[in-house]
Design goal:
Elements (H helix, E strand, L loop, with lengths): L1 H24 L6 H81 L3 E10 L8 E3 L12 E3 L4 E8 L4 E5 L13 E5 L8 E7 L4 E8 L9 E4 L11 E10 L5 E8 L8 E6 L1 H6 L1
Antiparallel strand pairs: 1-2, 1-12, 2-5, 3-4, 3-12, 4-5, 6-7, 6-9, 7-8, 8-11, 9-10, 10-11
């Protein structure tokens, strides 16, 4: 009985709604109760719709923030990879340029003199104030012997001193000192006037970073900005290796000879690679 009443009530409610809908569709104007009901319903709906919109927008913004964060992370990774690759590229480019210069240097020297140039890596530099030597990764197993000239593409570095099977110690020309028991003076001349100029590089002034050149003949036409090279006399330093540039020339104490200051061509800061000069004719004589 109760179910039957409930069923009848639902049928009546549905019919009522249908009649209202049918009547509204055929009328252009609403009655004031209908208007009041519609306005009230709209007012109430807006209080539910706005918060719902805000909440939906909030969650949408959270989703956007997550997407932006992921994109930023990807961009950061890409930027880091680009920076790393750029540094690597610059390093390789500089290394290739250096190798090209060294290859051109050895070819040019090979055409001028019949020398072999053994490329060596500088593996350590002494910080001893009384012995600024350096060690290279070539030794007697590679044909290195004491008193072999060591140079860079810019200019003379020094001489090999002690040699082990796999390493060698290089004494730089900045250690030139006439008072030293291991002193080896450098016989030098001027590029382009090898037969007309001569001098001896005898000592290095650590305060001015210049080498003193002595025993220059009174009538020698040596002048400032001339390029000083080894003359080959003395069979220690092979001829033709660039040493530096003349800066000043002064008349000696007795007026019979002159002295000159020479600025070194090679830089001794951050040396990484050097060349050990092998002279074939000296090797054959030994």
């Amino acid at each position: 009985m109760r179910n039957k009443r409930m069923f009848m009530l639902m049928i009546g409610f549905i019919l009522c709604i249908a009649v209202i809908g049918f009547s509204l569709s055929n009328r252009k104007e609403l009655t004031w109760p209908e208007k009041f009901l519609k306005d009230s319903t709209g007012y109430v709906q807006q209080w539910f719709y706005k918060p719902a919109g805000y909440i939906a927008g909030f969650f949408e913004e959270i989703g956007n923030l997550r997407t932006i964060h992921e994109e930023n992370e990807q961009l950061r990774i890409t930027a880091a990879a680009y920076s790393r690759d750029k540094i690597k590229y610059n390093f390789i480019e500089k290394e290739n340029a250096r190798f090209k210069e060294e290859l051109e240097f050895t070819k040019r020297q090979k055409e001028m003199y019949n020398y072999n140039y053994l490329i060596a890596q500088v593996i350590s530099v002494s910080n001893d104030a009384n012995n600024h030597s350096m060690n290279i990764n070539l030794g007697s197993k590679n044909g290195i012997k004491p008193n072999m000239a060591v140079t860079t593409i810019d200019g003379l570095i020094g001489l090999t001193s002690s040699v082990t099977p796999y390493t060698a110690t290089v004494t730089p020309i900045t250690e030139l000192d006439e008072a030293s028991p291991t002193f080896n003076s450098i016989a030098a001349t001027v590029m382009g006037r090898e037969d007309d100029s001569f001098g001896i590089l005898s000592s290095y002034n650590k305060e001015t970073s210049r080498i003193l050149m002595t025993r220059i003949a009174e009538n020698d036409k040596m002048q400032a900005y001339d390029t000083v090279i080894t003359s080959g006399l003395g069979n220690i330093y092979p001829r033709g290796i660039v040493i530096g540039t003349i800066e000043t020339i002064q008349v000696g104490d007795f007026g019979l000879t002159s002295t000159a200051t020479v600025k070194l061509a090679a830089s001794f800061d951050h040396l990484t690679e050097v060349f050990v000069v092998q002279v074939p004719e000296l090797e054959e004589n030994e």
